[in-house]
Automatic annotation (TrEMBL):
The lineage of its organism: Bacteria, Bacillati, Actinomycetota, Actinomycetes, Micromonosporales. Residues 48-164 form the SCP domain. Gene3D superfamilies: CAP. Residues 1-23 form the signal peptide. It holds the Pfam family CAP. It comes from the Bacteria. The keyword Mitochondrion does not apply. It comes from Paractinoplanes toevensis. This is SCP domain-containing protein. InterPro entries: CAP_dom, CAP_sf. Keywords: Signal.
Length: 167
């Protein structure tokens, strides 16, 4: 039986106050290695599935922002190469700092979801939607931009990052 563990959840008060938020999900599952082009297709499919969830609940569709993609891909790659799972980067960076380093305005950094072990875009979005913190990030109608990054361990386990923005 596959395990699902919520590592961190979004606290309601920061969402109501408009403060940046984050959430993490872990699921142990074997995965196959994929090519860089397949990884990009997976990232785009996560955006499509995320937008389907948002629009079915009255929020606007998120647009892909290449700066957020850069931040998300970088964090996923960092988690894989340094063998950790956290919103805090191996250099101590926050998701806001990573978004700013990628050129995104600090005032517009909104939230971050991370996950590992989910083999498909459908699996990771379903996992996030089943987690209160991730769900709140996805369904926050104030977010208008997104970047998704996936990186794979040598054994093929995917690490996902989804960064949200307000501009």
């Amino acid at each position: 039986m596959k395990r699902f563990a919520v590592i961190a959840a979004l606290v309601a008060l920061p969402v109501l106050a408009g403060a940046p938020a984050f959430a993490a999900t872990a699921k142990h599952a074997p995965a196959k290695k994929v090519s860089a082009s397949a990884a990009t297709e997976f990232e785009n499919e996560v955006v499509r599935l995320t937008n389907a969830q948002r629009t079915s609940r009255g929020c606007g569709a998120l647009k892909i922002d290449n700066r957020l993609v850069k931040a998300a891909r970088g964090h996923s790659a960092d988690m894989v190469s340094e063998r950790f799972f956290s919103h805090t980067g191996s250099n101590g960076s926050s998701f806001v700092a990573r978004e700013v380093a990628a050129g995104y305005p600090k005032r517009d950094a909104a939230a971050e979801n991370i996950a590992w072990g989910y083999r498909t875009p459908k699996d990771v979005v379903t996992g996030w939607m089943n987690s209160p913190g991730h769900r709140a990030n996805i369904l926050n109608c104030r977010s208008i931009a997104v970047g998704v990054g996936v990186a794979y361990t040598s054994g093929g386990a995917p690490y996902w990052t989804q960064d949200f923005g307000r501009s």
